[in-house]
Design a protein that fits this description.
The protein is an all-alpha fold and 79 residues long. The chain has two helices and no strands.
């Protein structure tokens, strides 16, 4: 009976070690979870920045089109 208790206790210790300190254990999970959270924040920032750049490009494109129409009108007036 004593050997069975020792075996079960050893098994429990080994399982706990595997769970907490082993490969893909709790500690690894926590590290990866933190990295994912940081990456999500970074992605949100980059998405916001990309949207700002897209708006700037659209505004620039509209500005070019307005100037093009303006100068076409001016050239037609000169003809």
């Amino acid at each position: 009976m004593k050997t069975l208790k020792m075996f079960l206790f050893s098994l429990l210790l080994w399982l706990q070690y595997s769970l907490w300190l082993g490969k893909n254990g709790i500690i690894d999970y926590i590290k990866i979870y933190k990295k994912v959270a940081m990456q999500k924040k970074n992605n949100e920032f980059l998405e916001m920045r990309n949207n700002q750049i897209i708006l700037e490009i659209k505004n620039f494109h509209n500005h070019i089109n307005n100037n093009k129409k303006k100068y076409e009108t001016y050239i037609n007036f000169l003809k």
